[in-house]
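Quick one, probably user error.
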């Protein structure tokens, strides 16, 4: 019984997909949804700027920048540690010999 209903629904959907009017309306709906989202995003950015709030994109960019800076600091710290260890040498570690 369930398979028969499923087959009927799929068959009907396939016939509707072949109708140019239905496809045209579906494409317009998809395009309209995209433009509504773009307009809401624009309004959100404007409101965030108006109230001095960060947008999601700005927070994401800031997180990326902070992560990059933290990585750079870690690399520098390891370079400094290696440099200090190699400049101390065996005599430096034993109190000058």
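Nope, works fine. Designed sequence:
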């Amino acid at each position: 019984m369930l398979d028969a209903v499923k087959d009927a629904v799929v068959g009907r959907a396939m016939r509707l997909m072949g109708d140019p009017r239905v496809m045209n309306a579906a494409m317009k709906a998809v395009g309209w949804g995209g433009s509504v989202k773009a307009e809401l995003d624009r309004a959100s950015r404007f409101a965030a700027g108006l109230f001095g709030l960060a947008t999601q994109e700005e927070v994401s960019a800031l997180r990326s920048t902070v992560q990059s800076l933290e990585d750079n600091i870690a690399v520098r710290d390891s370079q400094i540690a290696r440099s200090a260890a190699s400049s101390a040498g065996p005599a430096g570690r034993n109190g000058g010999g």
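The helical segments are 2-17, 20-51, 56-93.
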